[in-house]
Amino acid sequence: MLDPESETLKSILMSEEICSEDQMLEVEEEYKRTGKPLSEIVVDFGIIQPEELLQLIATFLGTDVIDLKTTEIEKSVIDMIDPQNVRMYGVVPVSFDGGTLTVASRTPLNYQIADELHFILSRDIRTVVASEAQIDAAIEKHYPLETESMHDMLKSLDLEVAEGGVDNATEDIAELENLANEAPIVRFVDVIMFQAIKAKASDVHFEPFEKEFKIRYRVDGALYEMAPPPKNLAIPVISRVKIMSGLNISERRKPQDGRIQLKIAGRPVDLRVSTLPTMFGESVVLRVLDRSVVNLDLDVLGIGQDVLKDIRRIIHMPTGIFIITGPTGSGKTTTLYSALKEINNLEDKLLTAEDPVEYDLEGIIQLPINEAIGMTFGRALRAFLRQDPDIIMLGEIRDADTATMAIQASLTGHFVFSTLHTNDAPGAVTRLIDMGIEPFLITSSVVGVLGQRLIRKICQNCKTAFEPTADDLASLNITKEEVGGNKFYYGKGCSTCNETGYKGRKALVELFSMNNAMRQLIMKRSPTQILKGKARELGMRTVREDGVRTILDGETTIEEVLKYT
């Protein structure tokens, strides 16, 4: 099902006969598969050129397309909308005629934006159309978030909090609430969240220590620290985050979990909030769940085509268990979601039990696990079997009870997806045996295990070739002959990648498929190393070998592969 803006764009394209019904079916299929905006898909498919699309939308709205590169915007007009609203709504004020404020919007077909701005500013709003790239550039130009301005904000914040005379150790809840709701604290927390989402961070960490208060972002798996705010801001900033996520700000002795829902540039972003009491105050971590950043599509995970073909064969089986293994943060959930999205159709009923539900998937019934009230994976699975499902996804097999139920579900005509925490794919079999599952049940239910790691990709903007040393090749256990004419690369570091040399991530995988040879070894309770050796003999590429393939393809560095495999 399309969102309201995409529905409007679809009707415009169809009424103007720019898109045929067959083309639109393909476009909608791509929309459901990837979650990309409809406007982006029709351009990618070559149905319409970007400039033509902007003009089409402008004509429909009875407005104009403007070129922001050549438009001079007065300072007084820029000051009419504060930076927080500019970023939240994805708009740039262009001109003011005394009664009506003209704004360029990233999502001009979203009528709510003009209504909300009209309410906030108490002015009539006229929307004009410009390219998203130009609007983003104008926001950066007129509302910059530079380090210097962050320093200035921190100084003014420190002064305002100090002048307020509030004791940061206060137990007075009303006083804490007032402090957390003061404009400078609200502004500071909003800027932190916006910067995290702009940087495509997966997590934001607020960490109080004895003499300092750290705020760090995790981008592509690595943590980066921002300019540290004064220590006395820890309690008001953390209290602000707790208020936004609906948590109890007076409770600082127990861990709490909550959720914040924001709109950034007109698109919804979920933040999962977790608090943890420490010696020096509460540590808070926000997990950023942004659908526009995570592309739930098997084809974009970076998995080799030979392995991808086997994964597709397995996930389309009518019954069995498919397990994904790997450490925390290795992308298991994203791969599971991508697989579910691929096989989701009207003929099958899909149920998932997750802790917690990270992304809402259209047409799939999703159940959040809540162990505090007894809603465990095992209990959820028992309830699922009475709901007549075809496909079941369990977020994790944590114990023998869940494992037994999953096997029973697969043996009674269901396909089950799940995850396990093991070091490699063959280790999942040994782990199930350790849980007390009989080998004959494993051989008759498990159809495949995918071992996975996430590594960073080299930034394409500063990618530089180099000649590997003999030690480099020895560390990867490959020879010069195996390298052949392939080049090795590293990232120098540039503004595009924040001077890290890396931009984006991809999955390294190993696929352990069940076959007769494996079944015989499992029935003998063979150890992991024996299973792994036999799997390699039969063609399984290990995670390390997949990493070497990725290096030779020029996608990542030696350091990344050695670090994660």
Can you give me a brief rundown of this structure?
The chain is an alpha/beta fold. The chain is built from 24 helices and 18 strands.
Overview features:
alpha/beta; 6-stranded antiparallel β-sheet; 24 helices; 22% strand
In words, what does this structure look like?
With 565 residues, this protein is of the alpha/beta class. 41% of the residues lie in helices and 22% in strands. It is built from 24 helices and 18 strands. A 7-stranded mixed beta sheet has the order 12-11-13-14-10-15-18, with helices on both faces. The chain has a 6-stranded antiparallel beta sheet with strand order 6-5-4-9-8-7. The radius of gyration is 26 Å and the shape is globular. The chain starts with a helix and ends with a helix.
